[in-house]
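User: Please predict the structure of the protein below. I'd like the answer in structure-token form so I can feed it into my own downstream comparison script.

Assistant: Understood. Taking the following sequence of 147 residues as input:
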Amino acid sequence: MSLNDRVLGVAALVFAALITAFGYDLEPPFSYEPVGPKAFPLLVALIIALCGLRLILKGGNAVEPNPPGANLRIMGMVGYLAAYAFIFQWLGFIPATALMATLVGHLFGASLLKSAIGGIIMGIVLFLLFDKGLDVVLPTGILGDLL
């Protein structure tokens, strides 16, 4: 069996079903938002399912193989995201996000200086947007006394 768009569409539907199954039971201990925490995973699952259906109905094109080195960059990205999940609470949102964005930017060809500047700006701006602007509590980690 060759990999094509329809196979990817079926995989997307399976993934959307898993997200729906795990996200549907999310209930906070108290109600603080009108929609609750399950709205985001269910919305993401709906979007993935619609894209999967589109691939199944209109797909059929053969998928080209990855260019040389792409699989190594993909594995590096998965490793960075796993490390981000582990250090996020301890290190805090700003440093963890800045570090991850720096590594990902460098992984995809940016110079270390440019990706570090972009990562630091991204960490600070996203923290201000979510924590201060949208009142989403984010871990401060090692910067706890400064924030």
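That's the full token string. The mean pLDDT is 86.
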